[in-house]
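debug: dumping io for the single-chain case to check the tokenizer round-trip. Nothing else runs in this session.
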Amino acid sequence: MPGILYLIPNTLGQSDAGPAQQLAAVIPTEVQALTAGLDYFIAENAKTTRAFLKLVNGVQPLIKPLQEIQIAELNVNTASAALPALLAPILAGQDAGLISEAGVPAVADPGANLVRLAHAHNILVRPLVGPSSLLLAIMGSGLNGQSFAFNGYLPTDAEQRGKRIKALELRSRQEQQTQLFIETPYRNGAFLEALANSCQAGTLICVATDLTLPTETIKTQTAAKWKSALAAGKHPDFHKKPTVFLFLAQ
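debug: decoded output
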């Protein structure tokens, strides 16, 4: 009988607090205990996963020493032909945890393909409760939470990015749909400038940074106000910090 594929949420970043304090606010106790009882993980980033398991071990002792726990990587560079091998231990009866670099797996994360394959092999998939930066950003933005779309990364080419923003702004206006984006953290400033310059003055733009961390900030204002603030040199404190961007056209 196959094992279970658990979709394990990770923290959205680490603070200076102790393991118990870092985990308590974002990862339920039951999820911590279940994670500690697994010895096979499929991870977007093995190093990040080891850091997370070390946190868990500070509260819930791991079933094995960390160095004996198997961590197989699944990231954007993993070929689809490699997925069956990742599932092989589960098909043989071993439970496993799929874990993202940050937040919940299989959402803005390459793990979705593995989950689809698990369903095709009748493997029981159990998603576990934890922090999603996208949902937290929608909650805190004040924008439309009834209809929204996650667009991932936009083109880095300025002209193509501007055209894409304008197209999505039109869709947002027509459907009253909130549009969500992420960006490589060191390009946050350039991306906010692109949004402020490409969107119409009344479009609401939200910047949500370091969600769930002590340095968390969420700010929503019109494109015109963002443009004015940026022109005055008043940039958000988001350089190299994980940030979710949202907008809603009025």
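debug: round-trip ok. The chain has a mean pLDDT of 95.
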